[in-house]
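TICKET: design request
STATUS: open
ATTACHED STRUCTURE:
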């Protein structure tokens, strides 16, 4: 059974330690009085020196026209995934079944901006006919890359594209295969209507 904290002659609860400038608070919990203290005011953290520790959950954004490089620490897996994502926008890769297939996971699935579901074989076969599939076709403009390491060997990317005035937000999951190479496991595109606010 909890005991009601005894009070000193000055009215303070005996045994309770107070942080400097942190007033004592006595809360009533059921039939008991519990002594607590308010936490001290938060202070601004000093600027971190050196690169962030490579542990835990990592979030990074690729340097591009809309992000200051000095403000964007990157996990190497995120960087590698973004480089590979951009390779898929290269006409020389899209025209080569061998080069393109090497970037896709055998279990790859895509849900396109139209809502169509693509398999690995369907996407590799269709890439030369899609936008960016040749030097003369409409290029793919990709920007605002962001990435997170979800687990060892698994990276989630988000970014935006503009193709012939059509705007889409895209999400990709890359995972390492048995040989240690990142391959695109899943991709989804969501069309963005004109005038949609950017989050």
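STATUS: resolved
RESOLUTION: sequence designed for all positions
ATTACHED SEQUENCE:
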């Amino acid at each position: 059974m909890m005991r009601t904290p005894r009070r000193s002659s000055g009215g303070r609860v005996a045994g309770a330690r107070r942080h400097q400038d942190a007033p004592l608070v006595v809360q009533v919990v059921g039939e008991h009085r519990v002594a607590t203290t308010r936490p001290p005011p938060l202070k601004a953290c000093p600027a971190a020196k050196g690169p962030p520790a490579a542990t835990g959950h990592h979030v990074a954004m690729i340097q591009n026209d809309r992000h200051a490089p000095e403000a964007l620490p990157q996990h190497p897996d995120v960087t590698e995934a973004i480089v590979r994502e951009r390779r898929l926008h290269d006409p020389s890769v899209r025209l080569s079944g061998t080069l393109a297939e090497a970037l896709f996971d055998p279990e790859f699935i895509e849900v396109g901006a139209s809502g169509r579901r693509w398999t690995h074989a369907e996407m590799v076969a269709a890439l030369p006919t899609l936008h960016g599939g040749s030097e003369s076709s409409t290029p793919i403009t990709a920007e605002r890359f962001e990435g997170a390491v979800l687990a060892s060997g698994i990276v989630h990317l988000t970014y935006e594209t503009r193709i012939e005035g059509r705007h889409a937000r895209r999400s990709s999951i890359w995972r390492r295969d048995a040989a240690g190479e990142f391959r695109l496991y899943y991709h989804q595109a969501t069309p963005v209507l004109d005038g949609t606010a950017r989050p």
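CLOSING REMARK: The two ends are 52 Å apart (CA to CA). The helical segments are 76-87, 91-94, 97-101, 120-126.
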